[in-house]
Amino acid sequence: DAGVIQSPRHEVTEMGQEVTLRCKPISGHNSLFWYRQTMMRGLELLIYFNNNVPIDDSGMPEDRFSAKMPNASFSTLKIQPSEPRDSAVYFCASAGQGNSPLHFGNGTRLTVT
Amino acid sequence: GDSVTQMEGPVTLSEEAFLTINCTYTATGYPSLFWYVQYPGEGLQLLLKATKADDKGSNKGFEATYRKETTSFHLEKGSVQVSDSAVYFCALSDTGGYNKLIFGAGTRLAVHP
Fold first, then answer.
1. A55-101, pLDDT tens digit by residue?
2. How far A14 CA sits from the closest chain B CA (Å)?
3. Triad A62, A63, A67: Cα angle to 5°
4. Contact check, Cβ <8 Å, B49/A101
5. What distance in Å separates the CA atoms of residue A58 and residue B38, rounded to the nearest whole number?
6. Following DSSP, what letter does each residue of A58-87 receive, concatenated?
């Protein structure tokens, strides 16, 4: 079991650029979550999918943020255009059926200058 | 809505000291409760969980009991080690399904030799 795989681990970009974060969930898991972690706001749930369908995106901060899950083994979180206040660690997590716990990836640390 | 409140950190202890990290929750239904741990540079890992009232979750010497009457899920360990230094998150599962978790703000623990 390779766990949840996120890429890249670190991303440094300039304000205004497009950023794409990637996630491969654990095989067989049918729920996928994107969280953002900052010192000021802690862990915030941005969006989650079930069986590749977005269920709740109310946590997405602005229209600059979008997420897709084209198949059961891949998801992306895109920020366009990026701003310095988007700097944070972004985590992807997946879970199986029933009352199963979330498994987190190691995160992508995004720095927007 | 559902929420989790944790004691503020940092908590600083000497090795072999007793640890308590308080966690209380607000929920409309009967959620499952979790403790996750985050080591530096890593994602969150499940430490223990409890799915119903009076259940005790335990792992690696850590324990927490689901107390419905006090809406609490305090984390305890009888003798901490330097390697326990990390950030600890209390969480509850959203009763709407999909294994969505609502996290507390996290409590940083520092253990000194």
1. 999 999 889 999 999 999 999 999 999 999 999 999 999 999 877 88
2. 23
3. 100
4. yes
5. 25
6. TT--STTEEEEEEETTEEEEEESS--GGG-
